[in-house]
Structure formats: structure tokens, C-alpha cells
Amino acid sequence: MHSTGGKWQFKVMSLILKIRDIYYPRKKVLSETGIKKGYKVLDFGCGPGGYIRSALDLMGSDGKLYALDASASAIMAVEKMVKHYNLSGVETIQSDLDTGLKDECVDVILLYDVFHHIENQVLLLRELHRVLKTGGILSFSDHHMKGSRIVSSVEESGLFNLSSKGKKTYSFVKSSR
Questions:
Q1: Domains of the chain as residue ranges with CATH
Q2: 19 pLDDT exceeds 90?
Q3: Which pTM value belongs to this model?
Q4: Where are the alpha helices (DSSP H) in the chain?
């Protein structure tokens, strides 16, 4: 994964994301994912954790959220937030690609505004395909890419098929490959 810069750049990015969340709350975006009580969710490229609290609200106390990011600053921000709000059911993973998760163990994967940073997108899609349950959803959004490019990038891998397009996200299901 492409590095997102140093601590100063991370703080600026975090501020911009907080401002964005005022105008378009994360819960609205997550409403397109179909997250239900007890689900396991992987937030790949979680950044400072802007989706975590909203996802946990949807998943309930029986859910589990894996917050993965390549940036140590992002992981520290998530861990600080988890501690500050006394959140349970969150596990952080610092990695640029390998999730370390078991096969077919997550119900929903959030892949938001990170795909354009990925050097080997096919390897990422293979890893996400491996950990996503059959019938699970890969929820994809990347404001750096046009919709047609998002769909072609994901479907050309042969690993996922578009199932729906929401207002802010594209939902893909795992192919049987």
C-alpha cells in the first residue's frame, strides 16, 4: 500500500475527514452496506477510524470490527478512540495488504478511499476475496476514481461481481471462482 505520509499529514487528513463527516455522516454511507447485528466487518484502510463507531452501532455488541491500515499513526488513532469511548469488539491490524484473518470470516468489507493507493490491486482483491464469506459484501467507494473505473477494476479480477450501486458506494458480491 502507498504510504499516506507522516504524522503532520495524517493530522491534516484526519481534520478534513471530520469536516466531511459533518456534511455527510458515516452512518448514511454504511446504510448501503447491509451491516446487521452480529456481523464481522473489515475496515480495510481504516485511517483514523471514521467509520468505526457507526459500524459498531449497526453490528451491536455481538459484532466484531477489524480496523486495518498500513499507517502506524492510523492504528494509534483508532486504538486511542477505542480506549476513549470504551468501545469493544474492535481489533486493529497494521498491514499494507495481508489481513492475517481466517478464510471466509467477514460479512462485510469496507474499502473506502484507499484502492487508488494500492500498488498491486489484484493481490488486494485476492486477499479480500479470501476473507469474505460467500454472500458477503465488498462495499467500495473511492472518490479518486470514476464509477466505471471502480466497476471495471473490481470485476476484471474475476473475483467479485457488482450487485448494486448506492448513492455513495458500490456493492460487490464474491464470485464463486
A1: 7-174 (3.40.50.150)
A2: no
A3: 0.88
A4: 7-23, 26-30, 52-59, 72-84, 121-131, 147-155
